[in-house]
Predict the structure.
Amino acid sequence: MMSASRFGSSVAWPLVSENLRSYTKAIYGLDAAVQRVGEDQWDQPSPCEGWSARDVVGHNIGMCNMIAGFAAGVGAAGPDETTPLDPKAEWAVARDGVLEALDQQGALQIKTQTPWGNLQVDRFLGIVAVDPLTHTFDLARATGQDIVMDEDMAAAGYAQIKAAGDAVRQGGRFEPAAEVADDASIVDKFVAMTGRRP
C-alpha cells in the first residue's frame, strides 16, 4: 500500500486500481496491433474518417502524453495530437512514458482539469480505457490484421458506451451505433456500439 501523506492525508492507497489495470490492458492490446503494422502500411485509411493508420497512432501518442501530464498535475482540454514520422518508435516512448507516470506514488489520486471536467486521474482512466480499445480495432482494420481484443474489456466498453447514451456521441467522438446481430460476439457488439462496422 502507498501512503498519500504528500497530499495532506494519511490514507493508504493501493498500488494499482481496477481502472489502471483496465487502461494498462487496453494500452498493451493497442501496442500489439502497432507492432504488427508493416512499414508500408502506415498511410492506409482507417475506419476513423480522414485518419490513416499513422493518424490513429498519432492520436494515441497524444492521449498518452496528455494522461502522463495529468499524473503530474498538468491539466489539458484535449490531447496534443501528432503525425508521427516513426510511429512505432514514437508510440513506444509515449506508451512507456504514460505507464511510468501512472506508476508514481499518488499519481492516481491527483485531481486536474480533463476534457470531461475536473477529475481524479484514476476516474479519468476508467472513462478513457475505451479509447485505446477502440483504436486497436481501427488500426487492425486499417492494416489488414485480425481483430484481437480481450472479451472482458470489450464487454466493459460496450456497457460503458451504452450507458453513456447520446452524450458520448457529441463532438464527433463516436458515430451512431451500427447494426449488429443479436447473437454477434461481444467484440463485434462493442465495435458496433462505437459506430464502426465489425
